[in-house]
Design brief:
By secondary structure, the chain is mainly α. The protein has one domain. The chain has 3 helices and no strands. The chain starts with a helix and ends with a helix.
Length: 77
Amino acid sequence: MKFLSKFIYFQILGWKVKGNINFSTDKLKKCIIIPVPHTSWHDFYIGVLLRSVSSVNTKFLAKKELFFFPLSIILKW
């Protein structure tokens, strides 16, 4: 799954990550990652792909109205 996520994120979509995507847990205990610029609905799946590409254990914060089938499967994954 990680290979597929990286292929889609970097090769198909052509996105790049600036900075260090492999955050050191020694230096960083907690953080908030916000995929921006939030100009369209595409930001959601790009954020999901970024979560898969990075080695950081991440969670989503979303309002309860977003947790409906089939979107709830992706959000709870």
